[in-house]
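Help!! Second protein's tokens look totally different from the first
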Amino acid sequence: MSNTTAPCHAGPPSSPGSTRPASADLGPLGRLGVWVTDHAKLVTVVWLLTIAGLGAFAPQVEHNLSGAGWQAEGSESVEARELAREHFGGNASSAIQVVVRSTEGPVTEGEGKDVLAEVTAVLEAEPRIAEVVAPTPGATLSQDGDTAIVLAGAGADTNEMVRVATDLKAELQELSTDAVEVNPTGSSLLWSDFNEANLDAMLKSELMSWPVTLAILVLAFGALVAAGLPLLLTLAGLVASAGSLVLINELVPVSIWAMNFAMMFALALGIDYALFVVVRYRAARAARAGSGRTDVAGKQRAIAQTMDTAGKAVLLSGLTVLISLSAVMLVPSPSFRSMAGGIMLSVLFVLAATLTLLPLVLFKLDDRINKLALPWSRSGEHRSPRFAAWGERLWKRPLVWGLASLVVLLALAAPIAGLTTAMPSIKVLPEDASARVGYDRVQESFGDGAPGTLQLVMNDADAAAATEVLKNDDGIAAALPPMPAADDSGLVMVQAVPTVDPSDPQLGETVDRLRADLPASALVGGAPVENLDLKTQLDESTPLVIGVVLVLGFLLLLVALQAPLISLLGTLASLLSTAAAFGVARLVFQEGYGADLLGFESQGFLDAWAPVFFFAMIFAIAMDYTVFLLASAKEHYERTGDPKEAMVGSLAHSGRVIFAAGAVMVAVFFTFALSGPIPPKEMGVVLGVAVLLDAFLVRLVLLPVLLRLTGNAAWYTPAWLKRILPTITFAHD
């Protein structure tokens, strides 16, 4: 059996007296590693300038990025909103509604009247507010006179209106007195409050995850200095991606979720990649020390060997992640595209740091990487005896272990059959959030459907017919008289109050009926309709995204491994952990199991954006581990031609890394499940369960069993395919 930790044989020096390995004997990444060490000052300066330059913008990320953009581009509801904003004084779904409620008599008299005047003054002083509409009897003034709504028209786009809400909500709430309560609400306030709650959750999650992450890294590396290297990559990727997102936001709106997901992926993948590279370098360094080669050329050979093996796997893993996430761009929604773009940006920076900055740091630290080592540390150990023994156990009894893991995965995936999805309800906000309090006050005073008032924009000639349709529809509680446009556009708006809460499934049926029965010029909009249109778009896009992700993932594995069978099995195996994660998500978030433990109120469904977006994220992470395991297996198969050595050797050399990286990811993701609104909890539970199952059942049990059962056939490549595919090898002599 060839020992993969043997010192790199790079052939004779490129010229007499040269201290560098001959570049002709190195792969592209090996040559990159040598180039980085030869141009250390240049690489250092470039990274310092990148981090310093982009880091100057990074602190602005939470303020500049928005929470809006959750819309179906080109939909009827978005068209209705833009017409309402342009022709009706900003009376669109993004308008701000300030709910003023008096506990001592009519709100339009006495102290309530004074507060209403102060609210109006604050709104009129804001240049981004269009028309301010006073409470109107029969519309925005309750029948008992205790509750009034002051409407602040949207004078800017949806992203800017979220910032307006953030800037004004504290000042408006401070106008409250002992007898009068002021609570701004509406979709812009919802996003503002959600961003605030989400930021608090992220900060809490970071405080919880970093100590756990560091502890796992110390255990994995056995030395404090080595354990700190993944954090170096993470910080570099985070700072660079945060600053980049702020700059990109100047050109196109970027959702705050882009930064949230970018932060998670920078941490998770930075640790994954650093683990894989550092473990390989320490083994190469130990072998170099044993051979007596401790000079510069010897260090460069260790770097070259590391980059030609682990570096190649990292590059392919990064490309797989990028390809998986790029499929989300097929969803024509600004928020989804910016979120996927934010993650891809962080992956690019982490990948660049792994392939350039990390080799340089390893070259400079050399044996100092093992400083502050723990007593049990064996820094030069690349082949893990425990995981080698685990591989032998799987080889002897593949069916027992394979069937056991398959049964567990299928049992957890079974509940997915009853999974239902819908757009987030007001329950995603804390109970004391201004938008939620105002929402509740509107429902109490104006009816269940009042917070989700529909806005119908149409030609003036169709107003009478539309009003008749609304009057005869059982899903409509009341309709206001047609309101003419403020200009000569010939448009009118009719506002209709549904009979049900905006998150009630019956609202979708009502909207479908109205769109079928209303005159052709009528456009049905409003915040709840925008949610319904987005859900429809997500439902239509999900099969396409899943199909594209699977096909692209398979093709990349095929190019990397040159083996159709194991590439196909590796791709399909990722579906098991994904299905199981969503099965668990149904039990937790739809059925409410564990809701008290996690501290949330079940909405009775999973948020509609979860399947398409989380699938891409889970698949990206799963393929990350797949590349690590199968690249190691391919390396051993190339050296020996023995399928047993390929299977056992891959576990022995990459099992510990997959185990440690999976543990870190699970810890990071589950911390998000312990704090904040429901969406971060969904993200934490779904991704945490998926990584837990994928790393420990699929990659360390089921996939090795598949290698055992398929034997040499796993690595067979037809002659015609060999002629098509580029030559990629993982063995480094």
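Here's the second one for comparison:
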Amino acid sequence: MKYADKRVLIVEDQRPFLMLLKGLLQSMGATEVVTHLSAEKALTACRKEKFDIVIADLHLGAEQKNGFELVEELRLSRLIKPSAIFVLISADSARPVVLGSIERRPDDYIVKPFSQAQLKSRISRAWQKRQALLPVYRAIHDDDTKKAISACQEIIALNTNYLHSTELLLTELLWQSNLYSDALTLLEPYKDAAGVQWVQVALARTYLYLERFEDAILMCQAVLVQNRFSAEAFDIIAQARQGLSEGEEALAAIGQAIKLSPYSLPRYVAACDIARSNDDFIFAHEACAAIWDLSRRTAHQDIAHWCSFIRSMLDVAEHADEKRVKNRYQQDALLHLQRGRHDERVVRLNPEFDFDIFEQVIMARVAALDGKLLDAKRALFMSQQDIEAKYEEYPVMYAPDSLNVMMELGEFEEAQPIISMLDKHAEAAGKHILTSAQGMSKRSRQRHKQFLKFNRQGIGLYQEGKFEQAKEQFCLAQEYAPVNTGVALNLLQCIIKLTHGRKTSNEELVSECRRLNKMLHDMPLKAQHKEKFEALSEDIDALLAKK
């Protein structure tokens, strides 16, 4: 391998070792060696020029982007050529660190200390492999999955030294294309081959995608006999157990995967999904906190992760049995909300994000949790008006908490468009956000069904002139939607009809009329509701004036 025509980038925060590495590369023949002390400066350099070899230390300073976050961003942002290799080096040989690094797919991972001969050999080997598989990497870089699959098949037909590496790439491409049966056909000939662990893991994941959950679990158990530290095997077991509705076992398996390899964002996303599905909201909060922490310095940084972190604390508060726990998590959510408003790292994530709107939604949810339903409705109303004025389409980041308050208040009709929007944008929303919203819709479905039943029956009876029976149905509907404007107006209409023409007043009906009148006066009303309320105002005043 000739180094003279290769551009090399070295990223190392310790200057003495940085200069040592530069000297080693130059002694190998490299003439163009660029050095940087941080990942951020390295990214800036890669935006300006392309390198053939990138060598980065894993640890690049506290609170700074590290080496495996750098390799991930370079690949995802296409700031590195498909022909370039990335070598990660570290003095840290702890298993979680090594697994976290390998999961980012550097071309090689070298543990310090190492000799010049070892460095040269590992770089050469990584380079040769990448060049052999370059047609595949180029197609992947161009987002041409079909071409990448064809390139893999051509290399496999040649039966090269990189056969298994190519088959693994092909398997992943088939998964991306939902060609799970084709992946199964590729992998099954190796099913009983000894020592080919990647095949067993890939086969188990293929079984998972095919919803052959028992087969996936059995295959992973075989993997764990050989290697009890396979975090991916525990990942697959967790999702398979969840597929079998074995929630406790699923939680235990994903917990073990996190313990083995705690630096994987997708792993925590899966953990959040599993935890929410099994109503373990403390575990879901811990997963959301990890997602936010892990994503902040990566190509996956997103304001939605911060919103989910805030939301997860309110989820714990909502489902807490003890008032002390509820209050603590509510206060933590409000504290982090205020900190985020003044944190430049949060503010810069999304220029379209409106902290005032999100705060209104969160305050609406806190008010609902405290039983202050009218306060919740006012805050929700203001937030939804602001959203409608600012955005053409409802933003995903505000949806789960808005939806939560709507369901709590019984504003089912307003909630439905948001549920439909989340279904439409499922991929962009993120699975853990969808799981949160779907969980709410499942819990509220029965309430909504009962509300619709009683409200519709009440409307039918009212149209038949059976006002007493209609009132009973509307009262039942209000139990499921205590501050729903529509049913409150329906109740008022019934009361007016029941008291119309009477010389003496019914104290119970007058008292109910007074309550509903005050409630509607105190809450914000949409135009059609306001018009209907104003049309009833003369009759209401007349009824309340009776002695």
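Reply: Different proteins will give different token patterns, so don't panic. The chain is about 70% helix and 5% strand.
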